[in-house]
Amino acid sequence: MSDGTALAGPDGAARCPWALSTPDYVTYHDEEWGRPVHGDDALFERLSLEAFQSGLSWITILRRRPGFRAAFAGFDIASVAAFTDEDRDRLLTDTGIIRNRAKIDATLANARALAGWAPGELDELIWSHAPDPAGRPVPRTLADVPAVTAESTALSKALKKKGLRFVGPTTAYALMQACGLVNDHLTGCVSRTALQDLGRHRPR
């Protein structure tokens, strides 16, 4: 039974334990999770998918991501903001996504709100809440990884103040983890070393 520390995978490399349950997770863990994501459309996609994940396992969303991208025009903010009532009806019957009315409506409303922002404003707002990595202890076990932080609470409030929905502190922290604002790979995890070598930066 795992004690929550990094575990060796089939290739012998140590990874966060959650990454070893399926090949899809191994790929996501190694190639995406915790790596810096920039760009308004890319961050809109991650924010939307994290909202859809609420109450579900991430693997459910990950395996449907191609369907989500097809349904939501590649998460191009301008395109989604222009969706009509007919598009909404289409989404509610699309078996390639999670057909949750509230989450679909929130995604459409968020796109309409973001369409009025200046280019780069979403990127700037999200990354302005990245904590100083020097002030964060390196997690040794899964129990050391928080679900909510002061920074994610502040990010949630900032997004809500700007009119976005389904952006609670837990969702905001999951976004921060996924998009590289924080490095929550465990001590000994091969991806932690890779990210430290890659380095992180905030947009200027």
Task: Give the tags.
204 residues; two-stranded antiparallel ribbon; mainly alpha
Biggest sheet architecture = 2 strands, antiparallel
Structural class, from helix and strand content?
mainly alpha
Approximate strand percentage? under 5%
Number of strands: 2
Multimeric state of these chains? single chain
Question: What's this, in brief?
Answer:
With 204 residues, this protein is mainly alpha-helical.
Describe this structure in words.
- The protein is an all-alpha fold and 204 residues long.
- Helix 2 crosses helix 3 (58-71), helix 2 packs antiparallel against helix 6 (101-114) and helix 2 (40-53) packs across helix 9.
- A hairpin with a 5-residue loop joins strand 1 (7-8) and strand 2.
- It has a two-stranded antiparallel sheet with strand order 1-2.
- The longest helix is centred in the N-terminal third of the chain and has 14 residues, at 40-53.
- The chain has helices at residues 23-31, 40-53, 58-71, 77-81, 85-92, 101-114, 121-127, 150-161, 169-178, 190-198; strands at 7-8, 14-15.
Summarize the helices and strands and which ones pair or pack:
Layout (H helix, E strand, L loop, with lengths): L6 E2 L5 E2 L7 H9 L8 H14 L4 H14 L5 H5 L3 H8 L8 H14 L6 H7 L22 H12 L7 H10 L11 H9 L6
Antiparallel strand pairs: 1-2
Helix pairs in contact: 2-3, 2-6, 2-9, 8-9
